[in-house]
Please model this.
Amino acid sequence: MSADVEAVDPRVATTNLYANRREQMFPTLTAEQIARLEPHGQRMPISRGQVLVEPGVRHGKMYVILAGSLEIVRPGIEGEELVVLHTAGGFAGEMNTLRGLGSLVRARVREAGEVLAISEEELRNIVQTDAELSELFMRAFILRRMGLVASQQGDVVLIGSRHSANTLRLQQFLTRNNFPYANIDLDADDSVQSLLDRFHVSVDEIPVVLCRGKQVMKNPTIEELAACLGMNPQMDETAVHDVIIVGAGPAGLAAAVYAASEGLDVLVVESTAPGGQAGSSSKIENYLGFPTGISGMALAGRALVQSQKFGANVSVAVEAVRLHCDRRPYAVELSDGRVVTGSCVVIASGAQYRKLDLESLERFEGAGVYYAATHLEARLCRDEEIIIVGGGNSAGQAAVFLAGSCRHVHILVRSNGLADSMSRYLIRRIEETPNITLHSRTQVTALEGGEQLERVSWRSEAGDVETHAIAHIFMMTGAVPNTGWLKDCGVALDAKQFVRTAADLNEADLKAAEWPLARQPYLMETSLPGVFAVGDVRSDSVKRIASGVGEGSISIQFVHRALRDLAV
Model:
């Protein structure tokens, strides 16, 4: 969603967004539309100064103004800023309203009158059943969130340094989850010391997050940050979900959209942010339906909104650590100790880039070594020389994207070239970009520096070792499946630890898992009945976004069958 504004100055982007799409952001409902909404809400009088919505408060209602006016203000550490004044026919709400999450703004009555209050449950009914109002509300909600994100203002403030790996970690989490925040760079903002003094924080304690303008969090984990910001819907541990989807990459989100739209009770848990590996792609140009390309984050954002529209319960910064498969319904143990249960499970936990065996790799991660190439990372290496390690499509997309702002891009691959693993359109673009150099049969041998990466050595095809003063390297090599959480269960894995499914399962796999049914496993079903695997985590899957989306969508047909098997 935010991809439309992320590439330009945020203040300019916000101004343009509010100016060019204001009618879509803040439409006025007709009398006929309001009449259709009446059965879904309750009329209530409002008085001047009355606060209807407070930042951070969950389960707020959507308010349709029938008479009077309602001002929407964004609180910040320096006070309030007016976002919009709603008058008769206007309505207050954005994406968090639909999900029952904490509000990002304050809604206060300026002129006494009357509103129609609509609960999140009724709002969800409306967007699922009324096509016209659904389009109107969803577009407005998405654009309003885009405006809040692009403004880089609000009561969530990140104080950090562009040279801090932990600062980048928090920036990536907030940005990829499309959460509005103000970023203050210790190295560039002269006023930061007064802010540190005000909140009794020393420079040594950064990064610091001011949560809701009140709580000071020093170098928080993403789990702690998500909890403070109320980013997730409340999770009912007593509920038995129809399906638990582990992972919110393209495959997991596709499964969530189809399962929720078909009436299933869906819980999605994701360890970081929607989009998986694809979410870190700067621009995807070969995905069907987007001829001019789309960023991975924008694609993931749209899919997330779709799943939420149909009622999927999606939680981020929540990692699955174990699948309990000794009983049915299955139980998934989470990193915070909670346990959730579901009749079926879809494994969509994806894969991560393989880490090179280099002595100082971990020390420089986030401080010169990166595993994503988005606008966040691009700002860190503008006008500098960089290295990309890898020959797949992600590496190619990163090279083309970064070549637009970096002085020179070196692509290092172990093979003879790019043809075996990269789409032809990317190869041609790389060949035609003068500031990209391909180094075939070349390997990184050493990383050096102090607190930041300063030098990189590589060995060429001829066996010569070269050392270059390069401070930024992007690692995009191979794929390691995220299947560690399955190790104590009877899910059959291949030699590389990817999940075997359907025809890839042999008699020994089924026997070891004590397959209890007369039928053979369904398409994409694992060695456990009702447990499916889709996307990059699945053995022999095609590592492309479109195939992951297809697998996630198709798996739900077989989830329905597995649920029927259980009911017999």
Remarks:
- Residues 444 and 498 are 27 Å apart (CA to CA).
